[in-house]
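Example 290.
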Amino acid sequence: MTVLTNAAQGRLLLSDKLPRAPDEKVNKKTSIPFALLHLLPFLAFFTGITWKAIVLGVVLYWGRMFFITAGYHRYFAHKSYKLNRFWQFVMAFGGTTAAQKGPLWWAAHHRNHHQFSDTSADVHSPRKGFWWSHVGWILCDKYNETKFEKISDFAAYPELRFINKHEWIGPWSLGLFCFLFAGVPGLLIGFFGSTVLLWHSTFMVNSLAHVWGRRRYNTPDTSKNNLFIAIFTMGEGWHNNHHHFAASARQGFFWWEWDPTFYILKLAQKLGIVKKIRQVPKYKRDKAML
Ligand SMILES: [Zn+2]
Ligand SMILES: [Zn+2]
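Predicted structure in complex with zinc ion:
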């Protein structure tokens, strides 16, 4: 494993390119359906676009973004708060409707990212190429399987293993619901349109949030803080904060850092759904600032 650091600043630079392993390549055949899904929303120009379908798409974008940021990311990958077994399952199932594979697959790969950030063992470092970090690694056969050894804590729950294995149930049933609720435009715009936008907003955290933005903390990686990404991902754009203290359920460390995922978690805490929310301790928040 090669780790190139900028000695003067003690941080990694994007210009320190990392070569990809020979088996780290995009499977062109399986990428075709994924690419075609991007075109489906445009069929709505022929079938008609309705307000009902647009509103459905907006609701499903933000609703499912919450399941990804609060559920897949801050709960399953980082255990930054507690849920009972029922709500844990709701979070897992809600996350699957975003069509980003199963919660155990997602969280295990994400734990790998934090463990090996921007080294050759990091699955999706932009040092291996911007498009690779954005989407290439997802289309690579090497990373199809769930890294169970990294998520043994949650893999102990049979219902989570089930939903992880049958991750198609969530998106297919949501797609069917959209069709029954708002017809063909509901399927094309409400479901496929919002799903494609949701994919690329989520992917931005792996690609753009390691490329574009400001660094507050001297973390040994390329992570950045970026308001633009925070807006579209309900607070995940404070990625340099997040790499500095990943166990915090709050990623906007200051009041002016927009983090609606955290605000909703606080509300859910008041309702008794969420417990033991972890936050960055003040001494840690004010340490190692650049
Ligand atoms: Zn990162
Ligand atoms: Zn994380």
